[in-house]
Amino acid sequence: FQGGDTCEYLLSSGRFLGEKVWQPHSCMMHKYKNSEAKNCLIDKHIVFIGDSRIRQLFYSFIKLINPQVKEEGNKHGNIPFEDKSASIKVDFLWYPEVNGSMRQRIKSWTEGSVAKPHIIVVGAATWSIKIHNGSNEALAQYKINITSIAPLLEKLAKSSDVYWVLQDPVYEDMLSESRKMITNEKIDAYNEAAVRILNSSSRNSKAKVKVFSVSKLIAQETIMKSADGLHLPESSRDTNAMILMNVYCNKIMKPIDGSCCQPQPPLTLIQKIAFCFFTLSIIGYLIISLIHRNNYRKNKSCTDLESGEEKKPAISTPNVSTLEMLLHSFCKLGLIMTYFYLCDRANLFMKENKFYTHSSFFIPIVYILVLGVFYTENTKETKVLNREQTDEWKGWMQLVILIYHISGASTFLPVYMHIRVLVAAYLFQTGYGHFSYFWIKGDFGVYRVCQVLFRLNFLVVVLCIVMDRPYQFYYFVPLVTVWFMIIYATLAIWPQIVQKKANGNCLWHFGLLLKLICLLTCIYFLSYSQGTFEKIFSFWPLSKCFELNGNVYEWWFRWKLDRYVVFYGMLFAFIYLALQKRQMISEGKGDPLFSNRVSNVLLFISIVSFLTYSIWASSCKNKTECNELHPSVSVVQILAFILIRNIPGYVRSVYSSFFAWFGKISLELFICQYHIWLAADTKGILVLIPGYPMFNVLVSTFIFVCVAHEISQITNDLAQIVVPKDNSTLLKRLLCIAGFFSGLHLFSAVQDQSRH
């Protein structure tokens, strides 16, 4: 740990990911859009002072504000730029040498009441080398001139951001005859002099002139592509301009994926309360553990010295009370949440940008596929979508989604479209699983609802408190929660139609189908009525749950993207259970699901359908258009997979225990990845071990999976305590939970008021 100032890293170190993506050491760069650049620089005055290389940087910088700007005007003169809509003024001042004229210009900003620029970017040397033919006298004079300018720059740095741009290397083989004296050896000597003089002053410790040395590293990789051997290619100077924008704007705009130069956010009131709660839980658990240990020692067996016989204690093992289990769970959770906070809110661990390559996505996919096949075992039952099979399905889908996220594969549209099917498949299972339970069991009690809601939402509520994020930020959990409540409402409202009742009279089946048709109609109406949807979820207290950045558009987008697939899951469950009840399918071990002929035809259709969808998804050219079709057609590949997986008897009777293990903690894996595997709220990658990418992924993945598994255990333990089966006790707990959320809302209101 070398301190929290990532600006130093941004300005001085980094590497290329691929050919054009620059990765600063230890932090993430945000790619600023024109609108963001204008919002950051509103009412600002920026000045670039120097030679033709600084002019290049000037043009790249103003193109971030207005991409339509053309590089016109007197090359050896001053160039003004102004954006009147945002009151931004950017000037290039032609001073190709560090001399008295440059000193006089800089001095003018330090005197009297003259308005000082907010950002000053200075750099020059190649003209001095060229004009004086690389003489040592010119270098000596350069040192004298910088020494006279340094105090002025330091004085300006007290109120403005001042950057000294070191000279980039040249590609000597491409230099014209008039520039042959500009050698990399000379440039290094000039840079060394500038760094030594600018960093030597004791006054510079507080008002520091920032040395922009990262440009040298970028040029070393790209100068070979220069047109004349002296000036950088456009992509390289654009990178320099983006770095400059990140240095100044990240602390103002605070972009999620721009961790460079961002200070650690202060603890909120709710976070402080959470910290106190977890601290007290840890202390309480330690006290109870010590008391129990002392009691156990007093009662443990001892050896009778006279007879040599062992005497049995009155109490052989300490009884674990509900309070101790509660404190134990919160103790572990507190330690885990501390790790979450340190990973993604404190500036302790490094973060890096994602960079997609085909190999970074497909090689791990092949690797986990081989592992999954290796751990093949027989299932306990051979029914369609039995428990082992659904766990396996969730497991391999979750692993693929994790690889998709860490590799940044969302930039590759065919992969994106297939991952959308996997997310839809999770929701399909939600519809299938909950419908099957309510249809077969007929259990619409409060206990069942509370158990499901607690297991789905516990971790997310804790993370909302500890990580200071809105509920909708973890979009998948709100999505699954709302769909569960919709399924429950559909089946629980009068008349309650369950399998037991329908077996007595077939007309009840039509009644249930009528309910499903009504549900489909409501979904269809809401999907084409954004205004109605937003009004429903804009009412308090729903708005507190589903708003993100002040509106519910993100929630509308997420809901609409997979709006039909839960309905398809419910319908599939209904049809499957009806066929099963009438013994129209064979689910014996090793038996095909249907007769050989029907099974072969369905299997052929399924394989063709599966491949057809993949071909269509791979040929997608526009994400928006494909997203419009996705809700209606994603079920094709889902159903095709189910039939391929279940029609052959042998395939249905085996499963991968490797994938099934991950499937049991798939929800925890999906949520935990936000902060302790990825970083910056999934925008980047957590770096625990810098410099060794593969080893870093292995270590962070091991910790991440262990934490997810532990949280799953904690959630199960707490669910038994918080949601008891006794109705009167459950009612009391629900009142306590209501009080907790009321207090949380009150503290949130106080917190928001203090922020404003």
TrEMBL record:
Superkingdom of origin organism: Eukaryota
Entry GO MF terms: N-acetylneuraminate 9-O-acetyltransferase activity
Name the UniProt record assigns to this protein: N-acetylneuraminate (7)9-O-acetyltransferase
Residue span, NXPE C-terminal domain: 22-92
EC number: 2.3.1.45
Parts forming coiled coils: none
InterPro entries linked: Cas1_AcylTrans_dom, NXPE4_C
Species name: Scytalopus superciliaris
Predominant localisation class: Golgi
Domain Cas1p 10 TM acyl transferase residues, every copy: 253-734
Reaction catalyzed: CMP-N-acetyl-beta-neuraminate + acetyl-CoA = CMP-N-acetyl-9-O-acetyl-beta-neuraminate + CoA; CMP-N-acetyl-beta-neuraminate + acetyl-CoA = CMP-N-acetyl-7-O-acetyl-beta-neuraminate + CoA; a ganglioside GD3 (d18:1(4E)) + acetyl-CoA = a ganglioside Ac-O-7-GD3(d18:1(4E)) + CoA
One record GO biological process: carbohydrate metabolic process
Any single Gene Ontology cellular-component annotation: Golgi membrane
Subcellular location: Golgi apparatus membrane
Swiss-Prot/TrEMBL keywords: Acyltransferase, Glycoprotein, Golgi apparatus, Membrane, Transferase, Transmembrane, Transmembrane helix
Protein family according to the UniProt entry: Belongs to the PC-esterase family. CASD1 subfamily.
Membrane topology reported for the UniProt record: Multi-pass membrane protein
Transmembrane stretches, start-end: 269-291, 355-375, 396-417, 452-468, 474-494, 506-526, 561-579, 600-617, 629-647, 659-679, 685-709
